[in-house]
Amino acid sequence: MMLGASLAAIAMAATATPAQAQDAPATPAVPADADAAPQGDIIITGSRIQRRDADTVGPLLTITAADIAKSGTSSVGDLLQKLPSAGVSLNSNGTQGTSYGASSINLRYLGGGEGSGNRVLVLVNGHRWVDAVGQRGFRDFVDLNTIPMGMIDGIEVLKDGASAIYGADAIAGVVNIKTIQPFDGIRASGKMGTTDKGDGAEYSAILNVGKRFGRASIILSGSYFQSTAIRTDARALTTTSLVPVTAPGTSPAGLYILPGLANNAYFGTAAGFASSASPIALNGANTLYGAGALADNSFHVASLPGDFYNTQAQGIYSTGPSKRYGIYGRFDYEISDNLKFKIEGLYNDRKSDQLFSPVLLDIGGTAGTVRGFAIPNNQPFNPFGTANGVPAANALTFAANTAWRVRKVMTDVGNRDNIQDVQTWRIAAGFDGSFRLFGNRWHWDAFASYAKDYISSRALNGINYDNLFLALGNPATCAANAGCVPVNLFGPMTAQQAAYIRATTIESNFTQLWNATVNATGTLFTLPAGDVALAVGYEYRRNQGTDRPDAIANAAPTYLDASLYAKTTAQTRTATTGSYDLHEFYGELSIPLLKDSPVGKALDVSLAGRYSRYSTVGGKATFKGGVGYRPIAGVLLRGTYAQGFRAPSILELYQGSRQTSFQGTDPCNGGATANSAKPGCAGVPAGYNQINYNLNGLIPGVISGNRNLKPETSDSISAGIALTPARGLSLTVDYYNIKIKNAIAAQSATQILNLCALRAGVFCDLVKRDASTGAVINLLQGSQNLNSIKTDGVDATLRYEFPTSVGRFAAVVDASYLGSFRTVSPDPTSSGTIVDNRAGKGDQPRSTYPRWKGQTSLSWDGEAANAVLRARYIGPSTDVANAVKDNRTKSVTYVDAEVGFNVADGRYRFGIGANNLFDTQPPASYANAPINYDIYTYDARGRFLYARFSVKM
Question: Of 76, 677, 766, 929, which is least surrounded by CB within 10 A?
Answer without folding.
Answer: 677
